[in-house]
Design goal:
heterodimer; A: about 325 residues; mainly beta; Immunoglobulin-like; 3 domains; five-stranded mixed β-sheet; B: about 120 residues
Chain lengths: ~325, ~120
């Protein structure tokens, strides 16, 4: 069975787009074959052969439907092609692909930073495209209920860019709130722009950074991170209890000035060989609202080379936030 | 036959210097550029406009793929040469071009300045 693509490889698609891919198939054997199933080894997709049965020397097509992942960049998906009941009659269609963005910046987030009760925040970020002469957002498809979306002229003045403005209309739940804004546009290749949105809503106490990722930690090694807790308006920080639910985390506190306490977090990878995914919960004497700080780490087995790919966060473009006042 | 060449010489993701060069044997304006330090690079995207201030539109439907480096050059980063023929250009018009480098991560970064080219009648 010989399978060849009818399209160029790698497949180049825009983010979130479902594609149909067609492959030619030839039965090079001496017996008829019946292609019983075609399916991807990962993700959402399906496949079928037309015709399903090929005589020796017979030609047909394999039609694949695949929803490529949202993640940008280069990757590969493999489709398994089973012919008959024999285990040996399994072919693989390897499809390298490249997911590209129709909009820039490619990695962007509407980041409100920290929000306190009574505050009304607004954050703005310009998006552009090189696929149409004039970019227009025609509809807000979805958004978190605690914010409103509007559009303004971009700082560049370019017809290919639009400023997206997000304004809070109420205080979201306390803690880390991560959501997504989906906008409909006039870009045919990828008509939906998806923008992550993040706000850290606090009561009397704030913490930074949040969330916390320790990255890859070689098995047997420790990792440390420092978190700073501040009391809004200053004064004594009255911590009642700190709990993470993980024996791999040891947390000590140290004073760092008026209304300030540092949490020195130590991670013992030997106590969490399968990795860490926990939430540090800080209770206070004078606030009913706890601080909940997500923390994660990937524990890498001994002998596995760790390659530092850099911090993805460094290439993420964040919006500019202003405090509009009380609400 | 129409012939124009733009020669763009640049290091990846840095500003470029270039000089237009005439050449034979092509069907439209040819963008030529060289690049090095291509680790983590997927390819290049070419943009064109009728005006220096834009709007610029992408003109290559497929990304110009990064070439494989010659074997035996593990330590040095060889200069790689590329060209893109703008077959949709019209005679007598003036166009403006620039090129983005596209990383394996999907992130684009401006590679060249805008260059102006008048296509002869």
């Amino acid at each position: 069975m010989r399978i060849t693509p009818t399209h160029a490889l790698p497949v180049e698609i825009y983010r979130g787009v479902a594609s149909q891919l067609i492959y030619d198939v030839v039965n090079e054997g001496t017996d008829p074959i019946t292609i019983s199933s075609v399916f991807p080894r990962k993700g959402e997709g399906s496949g079928r052969a037309d015709p399903q049965t090929l005589a020796p020397g017979g030609k047909g097509r394999i039609i694949l439907e695949y929803k490529f992942p949202e993640a940008l960049g280069r990757d590969q998906v493999n489709f398994l092609v089973k012919a008959g009941a024999e285990k040996s009659n399994v072919g693989v269609i390897r499809i390298p692909y490249f997911v590209q963005a129709a909009y820039g910046p490619e990695f962007a987030v509407l980041d409100f930073g920290t929000m306190l009760p009574g505050q009304k925040l607004q954050t703005k970020l310009d998006f552009d495209t090189r696929l149409v002469n004039e970019l227009k957002f025609t509809k807000v498809v979805s958004k978190p209920d605690w914010l409103d979306i509007s559009f303004v002229s971009p700082e560049s003045g370019s017809s290919q860019a639009v400023g997206v403005v997000a304004t809070t209309n109420k205080l979201p739940e306390f803690g880390l709130n991560v959501g997504e804004v989906i906008l409909e546009s006039n870009v045919e290749e990828d008509s939906q722009l998806r923008i992550p949105v993040i706000v850290r809503a606090f009561s009397k106490y704030t913490v930074s950074p949040i969330p916390v990722s320790l990255g890859g930690v070689p098995e047997g090694q420790d990792s440390k991170v420092n978190l700073r807790v501040n009391r809004v308006g200053g004064g004594g920080v009255r911590i009642k209890k700190i709990n993470s639910g993980s024996s791999a985390l040891k947390i000590e506190t140290s004073d760092c000035g008026n209304g300030c306490v540092d949490l020195d977090v130590m991670f013992d990878s030997m106590r969490a060989r399968r990795g860490l995914r926990a939430v540090i919960n800080v209770q206070f004497e004078d606030d009913e609202v706890d601080l909940q700080i997500p923390i994660d780490a990937l524990v890498v087995p001994i002998g596995v080379k760790v390659t530092d790919l850099g911090d993805l966060d460094e290439v993420t473009v964040r919006s500019t936030t202003t405090i509009l006042g009380e609400q | 036959m129409l012939r124009r060449i733009l020669l763009l010489t640049m290091a990846l993701c840095t500003a470029t210097s270039y000089s237009p060069v005439a050449a034979e044997g092509t069907s439209g304006p040819v963008l030529k550029w060289t690049s090095k330090n291509e680790k983590g690079l997927y390819g290049y995207v070419v943009y064109r406009s009728d005006s220096a201030s834009g709007p610029f539109l992408r003109i290559n439907s497929r990304i110009v793929a990064k070439k494989l480096e010659p074997e035996g050059n593990d330590k040095s980063s060889p200069l790689m040469s590329y060209e893109y023929v703008d077959e949709s250009a019209e005679r007598g018009k003036t166009y403006y071009y620039y090129i983005d480098a596209v990383a394996d991560s999907g992130r684009k970064q401006k590679l060249t300045d805008v260059v102006r080219k008048k296509v002869p009648q």
